[in-house]
């Protein structure tokens, strides 16, 4: 679908590749754009967003660049863009204090509880049955800094934990496609994009079963992010929300509630 008259909210999923991911055949930036009915607009895209991040002079130019990559045309600036980003969008408070010379954390024991390696949101997800990655130890620092750099340029306002905006029409937050695997809600939402029926969790994630241009895992993950963006707007109670102890500067991973075990 490519509708130049579409003026409703847009839901964009961004699976983030490293700064120089054009040299990496297996992992690159990928984008999927959905409308309010969860139709894929234009075509899913895969490549490197570095040039668009460098060249855009403001938020609206960057949004238009994303839409152009996906062959989506809209009349003027979109009224609302919800962008779900698959990369850590912050470092832990303890890690930032350590590298800035503001002091050390207490005793360090289990890896999953290490406040240098994992943020508050990740430590909670470990307790709820998931295994999130660390931007410090899991070789995703390039992706993380790319995401954070992009927010600093185009969505610099952080009104609440885990949410960034440009104080206008762009809202961005962190999603985690791997955390969607146990979610029956997301599994059901994925079915319309498949041309091969999936009867179990493993089949649902097989890339070869998808249509609509979802021909690579990066694009599948971007689709998952876009679906989480849709949930963020229309079914926020379906997503695990920040608690009162979440440091605002660390960010938060918004994952489906039904993907979690009891805490």
Automatic annotation (TrEMBL):
Organism field: Microbulbifer pacificus
Q: What name goes with this protein?
A: DUF429 domain-containing protein
Name the domain of life this protein comes from: Bacteria
């Amino acid at each position: 679908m490519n509708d130049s008259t579409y003026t409703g909210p847009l839901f964009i999923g961004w699976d983030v590749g490293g700064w120089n991911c054009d040299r990496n055949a297996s992992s690159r930036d990928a984008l999927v754009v959905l409308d309010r009915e969860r139709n894929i607009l234009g075509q899913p895209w895969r490549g490197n967003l570095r040039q668009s991040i460098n060249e855009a002079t403001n938020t609206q130019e960057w949004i238009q660049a994303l839409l152009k990559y996906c062959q989506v045309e809209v009349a003027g600036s979109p009224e609302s863009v919800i962008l779900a980003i698959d990369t850590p969008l912050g470092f832990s408070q303890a890690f930032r204090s350590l590298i800035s010379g503001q002091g050390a954390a207490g005793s360090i024991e289990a890896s999953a509880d290490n406040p240098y390696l994992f943020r508050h949101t990740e430590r909670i997800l470990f307790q709820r049955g998931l295994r999130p990655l660390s931007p410090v130890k899991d070789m995703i620092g390039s992706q993380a800094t790319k995401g954070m750099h992009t927010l600093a340029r185009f969505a610099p306002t952080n009104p609440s934990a885990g949410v960034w905006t440009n104080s206008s029409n762009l809202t961005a937050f962190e999603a985690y496609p791997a955390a969607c695997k146990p979610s029956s809600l997301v599994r059901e939402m994925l079915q319309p994009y498949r041309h091969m029926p999936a009867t179990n969790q493993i089949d649902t994630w097989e890339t070869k079963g998808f249509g609509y241009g979802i021909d690579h895992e990066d694009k599948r993950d971007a689709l998952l992010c876009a679906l989480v963006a849709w949930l963020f707007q229309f079914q926020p109670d379906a997503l695990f929300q920040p608690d009162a102890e979440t440091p605002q500067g660390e960010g938060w991973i918004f994952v489906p509630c039904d993907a979690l075990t009891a805490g």
